[in-house]
Amino acid sequence: MRLTMKLSSLSLTLLVMACLPRLSHAAELKLTSSTQYLWYQDYISDKTQNDVAQYLRLNVTRLDKEGKASVFAYGRASQQVTSDEGLQGRLYYLYFSYRDAFNDHLDLRLGRTYVHSAAVAGTIDGLFLDLKNLGPLGVTGYGGREVLFLNKAEVGGGNVMSGASVYLDAPKSTHLEVSYGNKYRNSDLARENIGLDYSTTPFDIFNTYGRVKYDTIGDHFNELLFGAKLVPIADLSLKVEYYQSRPTFDNNSIYTIFNVDKYREVSAGAEYAFTSNYRLSLKYAKEFFGEGAEANVYDLGLIARPVKNLSIGGSYEKRDGFSGRLSGFRLNAGYDIEKAKIQAGIDYDDFTRQDSRGDTAKKYWTGADYQFNKLIGLTARVEWDVNYRDSDSWQGFTAVNINY
Amino acid sequence: MLNKKIFPIILLCTVLIVALAGMSNAKTDHKEYKNSTLNDCKDCHNGAAIVGNHGGTREHRLLAERAGANCTDCHQQSFCLDCHNGGNVEASKNKSLSRAGETMPTTHRSDFISIHAIKAKDDPQNCYRCHESRFCSDCHAKSNRGAMQVKNHTAVGNTQRYFITLDPSPANLAAHAADARRNLQSCEGCHPDAQACSRCHVLTPGAPIRR
């Protein structure tokens, strides 16, 4: 009943927003709709499931004379037709936006919106403010109810999230930001983080970036990231990165009393563009899980556009060490023919899990778009899977897309 | 709850920001480049500031989460949510479907259920950026529990002695402790209140864990 009410209010709101252009002298409406039929293998219920889903995205802009006020909305309703599961919905966002208020000094978003900082990030029902252009400085602040999605619907998280940041945009593409964020669950402080982000390009050929995220409740760093990029010659870029993360639990979780190991990773990579149509990338990562457990991951990738309208992508990954061995490749190709776009691909993985099984997993897929006119298009995808759970499994979707 | 050790760090950073505040840098509006290809981007970004596809997995997160990010010059929020929250309004034909019928980001290669036990270890925190821990227990706590355990709990016969026997071998004890320390969030997925742990351990916040 509650869900039905939510969906009704969503529909009503979207309808009202669709009417806004008529009420406002210069408002512009952009609507994207996708009506989809999906079929897929649910191995828990051990049967093919079928869903019908309706996506709707609305942008209503130029609500005022200056073009600063807008409303943005995006949601989905879905119904599984092969079970008695009811209609489900997700409202991804629905917010009023006002930009460049007070002589370009304030951006505001009110409603359901994604908010971000190094300290905490997520979707909230609340308010986001960006006080900007204070010289090179800016200040953001946000607060509201955290929105969580699970199993095609929204679930009650009970969290209230808030945060603020102070940032500096300086020359040499330098960005420096200090942020603070917290989450309250049932009026108890569940998470509290401080974050520091930086990125700078002191020379055109060199850039360095990083993030430090500190958990003040657990009194430890829960994320560290430091990276550097170098472009020694045109079309060649080199990159090294150090990353560290640590599990974090809510303050009221019993799991906070246990010791945990950090995950650490050191990686190096290179990317080279032979021409604008051929690009090769290489990457190696050494992973450390604590107590002597380690893994090596090697990646090789190629993107090519040998002839007009044809694109080919391929990658190979090899992994060995803690938790298992993996060796696999992916290939895909796409070709554009006037109003149609065709794409196909193969994924192949040979794997051995450390604690259970080894096998291969293969996926063969193809898909196509056809644009009838500026307004209406059709998309379809079919996929054939062969793996240890199923030797002959099919799934995919078809979609009718409207862009107005 | 702010830690006293951290306060000087914030203060120092704030001072640093203010010290640098004399310099200014107007950000370029990228709206007019919205329909450009990545190759076109290199006409201006031919150095190390932005290379390739917005910097790869971790760097793109920094770019997207920074204050004043200009992602919205070219992308709507749906662009992010269609990977991070299973949306598909653009009807992307190169994305596969999960067992629940949600579109998955293309990082979920081949049959992801087959290889997720390995891939989830490449930064264990990464899964939790999009999934709640309840997402794991949706399968692991429902189906045939013996076969679906995140970690084999039945190292000795089929008795769950690995964890709960009162007289385990030192090797088993050491193995379970190491596994738990490396992967504690996966334990929480099926045992949110840690009752399984309290069969052997005395769990008192602030006190050492005793067996």
Sequence stretches where pLDDT stays below 50 over 5 or more residues of chain A: 1-5
How large is the radius of gyration of chain A?
Answer: 25 Å
What would you call the shape of chain B? elongated
- Which structural class do the helices and strands of chain B define? mainly alpha
Number of DSSP strand runs of chain B? 0
Residue share in helix of chain B: 40-55%
Described by its quaternary structure, the protein is heterodimer
Largest sheet of chain B: none
The 3D shape of chain A can be described as globular
Strand content of chain B: under 5%
Q: What is the β-strand count of chain A?
A: 24
- Count up the helices of chain B: 11
Mean pLDDT across all amino acids of chain A? 90
Task: Provide the structure class of chain A.
Answer: mainly beta
Distance between the termini of chain B: 31 Å
Q: Span from first to last CA of chain A?
A: 32 Å
Beta-strand residue fraction of chain A: over 45%
